[in-house]
Amino acid sequence: xxxxxxxKQRTINLDPLSIPQKQExxxxxxTLDQLMDHMGDISDLFxxxxxxxxxxxxxxxxxxxxxxxxxxxxxSRMLRNFLVVHCYGLYVFEWIRANHxxxxxxxxxxxxxxxxxxxxxxxxxxxxTYWVPELGKNIKPVKLWIPTRLKEDLGLLAEHAGLTxxxxxxxxxxxxxxxxxxxxxxxxxxxxxxxxxxxxxxEDRDVPWREASLSEYKESEAxxxxxxxxxxxxxxxxxxxxxx
Length: 244
Description:
Distance between the termini: 50 Å
Order of helices and strands: HHEHHHHEEEHHHEHEHEH
Shape: globular
Radius of gyration: 22 Å
Oligomer: single chain
Helix content: 40-55%
Structural class: alpha+beta
């Protein structure tokens, strides 16, 4: 890992009662090769195994979606790439991508849209209900799967900035995709009205959900679905056919 992350973790793990006997002599500046050595084993950046939750104002969400479409990638992949660059730099990002392309890009597909299809039961039809979080006006919730190491390092940067991880990620995302020039006019340019549920979402607590259409579910980075088998002549089956 970069020296900052290693030093921060050493500070966090330091016994507050321990008193250093002497200061270490000042080290020589590190070379690029030495800095790369500090990254250590990077295989833990290949698996998106933990969720990061935050929310974005509508304009920022729309801008990222349009950029993702322009570059031919998912919004999730674009955000993950950005967060890797933010933590470790463009050089490290391109080095990993060049030397481990299959591993680093293996999580680009969206598992929500590649679910196994179950065999229908006689006299039954499958009804799918789509849900999205309800966090307030002009708010788009984001649930992003990233490597554990990346989430921990983002947490260290957030602590250094005096912010929660979710608020930190929202701020750097808006600044990256909409420019630092939006900061003075951000309340007017990115008007949003989050409810208390927005903070609950950030902290992975229960939030209210509302039923959504298939198109809205696909556009959401945080939607969920429920599937059940019902009688083919039931009211639920009829409503499902009408909504298709």
